[in-house]
Amino acid sequence: MDALAHGDWIIGLGALLVAMIRAATPLALAAIGELVAEKSGVLNLGVEGMMLVGAVAAFATMVASGSLPLAVLAAMLAAMLMALLFGVLTLTLMANQVATGLALTIFGVGLSAFIGKGFIGIPIDGLAPLSVPGLTDIPLLGPVLFGQDVLVYASLALTLAVSLVLYRTRAGLIIRAVGENHAAAHAIGYPVIGIRYLCVLFGGAMAGLAGAYLSLVYTPMWVETMTSGRGWIALALVVFATWKPGRVLLGAYLFGGVTIIQFHAQGAGLAVSPHVLSMLPYLATILVLVLISRDSVKIRLNAPACLGKVFRSET
Amino acid sequence: MDNSATSPPGASPRLALRGICKSFPGVLVNDHVDLTVEAGEIHALLGENGAGKSTLMKIVHGVLAADSGTMTWEGRPVRITSPAEARRLGIGMVFQHFALFDSLTVAENVALGLEGGGSVARLRDRIRAVSDGYGLALEPDRHVHELSMGERQRVEIVRCLLGDPKLIILDEPTSVLTPKEALALFAVLRRLRDEGRSVLYISHKLDEIRALCDRASVLRGGRRVATVDPRAETARSLARMMIGSDPPDLTDRADTAAEAARPLLEVDTLSLDSDDPYGTDLHEISLSVRPGEILGIAGVAGNGQNQLMRALSGERLLARAGAIRIAGRPVADLGPGPRRALGMAVVPEERLGQGAVPELSLAENALLSAWRHGGLVKGGLVRGRHTHGFARTVMSTFNVIAHGSDAEARSLSGGNLQKFIIGREILQDPQVLVAAHPTWGVDAGSAAAIHQALVTLRDRGAAVLVISQDLDELYVLSDRIAVIAGGHLSESRPTHAVTAEDMGVMMGGMMGGLTTGGLFEAAPTGRRPTVGGQETGHEDTGHEV
User: Fold this and answer.
1) Chain-chain contact of B112 with A183 (C-beta, under 8 angstroms)
2) Could A176 and B83 be called an inter-chain contact, meaning their C-beta atoms sit closer than 8 Å?
3) Chain-chain contact of B63 with A186 (C-beta, under 8 angstroms)
4) ipTM of the modeled complex
5) Which of A148, A298, B319, B426 has the most crowded Cβ, counting Cβ within 10 A?
6) What is the CATH number of the domain that holds A90?
7) pTM of whole model > 0.80?
């Protein structure tokens, strides 16, 4: 290490930070979408499945058309179709949300593998990071602040937007009301089912975006079950972040950060079992989020009281 | 008996229902109901549980659709298909189980009930204006879960009034109020009437209706059987219309000489931290109930009753076994099962979830608490015939309306399920009965039957503890009364030595936080409401026994 010049060290740290942000972005995208669905009272455990379908749709479209925007759009639409299926089953046909969500994930794993069979091993040009002349070249801060790809900035903007909509607008108030007490929302005249459909579809679109990030940016290729559990992490993040968008983002970055650090630790040949190191991101994220959300009253205020409950209107 | 139309001839009534029918699978809930509500009247809708009152109001409010029949609003035929449409016409509703969102603020709750936007900041001013104008004190930025039941009702009323409704429907509004809060509500309702609005007032409290309402329509078995001037009727004649026969009378209390006997239920300086973030801690509660005695505990909901119930029933265990004793035996460290085995029975606060498993049949629910009694279980096996027999006995004795003992508990109306739960416990012939709100939401006829059963149980020598918000009920039943407020329990006093006014002051006064009750009084526009004024007995809500 001492052989490295000072400048190399800075570049190394910059690269590490960039890698952490890239690892965190798909988690943040998927978790923010699921947060909106859960705030409206719907527990969609199919995030993993929706992400996979989004990832394969993005990759296939990219190979076929060569257009990145088209690929991202295809991912969002494909995952929204999955979310629509979930909505029809749980909201219209009133199936159990937990069972349906698990089934959606299993379905997504199979469907994406089936679609992706012909795409294994094909190389694509992934989404390149931005390069702002002058700014991106600033040591350390340049690549971190100005050298990310456009989806990273989109994930931050979407988090902010979701936070503003949920807590500052009438639409957000209605979403929270529907998740808090669907019977009361119905009684004062809100279309509970319709609002929940919209929120579930938004969750699907975000999961699709997260999937697209994986297959277009993070590892620009298609591998079966390439999400490797990130959908489940996103679900857990929502709960540990007590349904707050800012905390979801924090949790995602924490997880991404520790993931990258433990990769580097493994690479450096640290004398700790790699299995223990692989556990670190999970342990650190859970620990921190549990610590910042100790106040049970606050949790009860943020947790949607009707989460996972089937709404049946009288006729 | 039908003397409708008090409005001048020619003017169309505000709301007219003609031949409204509504059936649910197996039951005709509304059977060709006609109802006319005029402008500027308080119209009572009176009936027993399951008479079809709530269903009819849900049809008017657009939550349910009628199977047949027509509705006219100010002379024009209308079809109301959603609550939003009802609101546009000018129909507002104050729900019995409030349609409020606990985790949102008062202003947000009100905003949800209004058409269109407007910033929450501007809404705050409008809320203040309306709440000051009508003397309905409210803080727009408080969260609903922090509010008392009376305050929550004010949120609903203010939300309703901001929509400038011409017809306001209130579903059993006084069931959650202290007597004083109820008087203040009546003053608000009279003022709304004087402004030319119509009020539809659903209740089964006959004295209230006689004191407040201009006309009363009585529903029985889904039909409207009469529309009368309630002030020209007696509580008894109204009850007869509701039930179709004379209501049963309570037998005179046997005045058992319980003084000397050893208490069957004792609580000794019980202190308990609430396990619910919104609950009330208990502070050194002591009480004793002797055989042949009913002790009533009065208090506004949310003053520690549910923690006390949880401690008494055995849902929460205490380290100090002697804090609660049954027939002298320390039981505070024993769970509900051993306590029941010692002869204790409990009627919990929540019917669905605590008192009964919603998805199970009535017979199965009966078995869950009564399996120790009457040979329902033999050699570890459930005896189906006995169990169903026991459930049917409960149903016939306590006049429970349901499709047999196979009916799911959740399919029963609230009052009917309450009758079933109380009956199930009483028929186990307990030595000690602890009952929370035994007649909450139960109609007059059935309430009298439940009261009679409690008195009979007492006369057989059981010790009965009744926790209730309903002072009339405690007056009828109790030998002694104590008041719970802010987690403290007062000394108990013989019932005849406490006036209703004393009780009202104790219920509101001991906790200090309820001074808003004073702000809820009649305050003409512009005048600041008086705080904590002695407003006793200016209304005739006499306690008929």
Assistant:
1) no
2) no
3) yes
4) 0.81
5) B426
6) 1.10.3470
7) no
